[in-house]
Design a protein that fits this description.
- The protein is α+β, with helices and mostly antiparallel strands.
- The protein is built from 7 helices and 7 strands; from the N terminus they run E-E-H-E-E-H-H-E-H-E-E-H-H-H.
- The protein has helices at residues 21-27, 51-62, 69-80, 97-103, 123-127, 129-132, 136-145; strands at residues 3-10, 16-18, 36-40, 46-50, 92-94, 108-115, 117-122.
- Helix 3 (69-80) crosses helix 7.
- The longest helix has 12 residues, at 51-62.
- It starts with a strand and ends in an 8-residue tail after the last helix.
């Protein structure tokens, strides 16, 4: 999947946002989309996953050694406010109160897509994302999931 685009969206008072038609077309075959998942992203955003992406991501996390405290903390943080919202008949998904508070999403949000990633940002945090991208969760995630070259050789 090769996604590209920035989509401003409104969030209603129930925490629902409508996924743009153009994005839905890229994700599904004629609107028959499967399940979505939303979890904490890096830099005060949420990451929106398709069912296949979620399976891939959780498979990677499931291989981590949870006896390593930094791995355990990162996995806990990842799943802490994760949800599996259903796409309603108006093509909306719901964000939880926890997700909205953690990412400072209120009325205006931005869905930012690149490669195979979909991120949901508050409008203000999206504008300032370059200063928000390094956070403790991001560093823990990088440490746990990025393979380091073997320096013993």
């Amino acid at each position: 999947m090769n996604l590209v685009g920035t989509y401003p969206v409104k969030v209603d008072n129930k925490g629902r946002l409508r996924l743009p038609s153009k994005l839905l077309e890229k994700l599904g075959d004629g609107g028959t989309l499967g399940q979505f998942y939303i979890a904490r992203g890096v830099g005060k955003c949420l990451t929106l996953y398709t069912e296949a992406q979620w399976a891939q991501e959780t498979n990677k996390l499931g291989k981590l050694d949870l006896n390593v405290v930094s791995n355990l903390i990162m996995v806990r943080d990842f799943f802490h406010d994760a949800t599996d919202p259903k796409l309603d008949s108006a093509d909306r998904i719901s964000l939880s109160q926890l997700q909205m508070e953690a990412t400072e999403i209120e009325d205006d949000a931005v869905i930012y897509t690149f490669l195979n990633r979909m991120e949901i940002w508050s409008k203000d945090n999206y504008k300032n994302r370059k200063t928000l991208e390094i956070d403790a969760f991001g560093l823990q995630r990088e440490q746990a999931l990025v393979k380091k070259p073997n320096t013993d050789e």
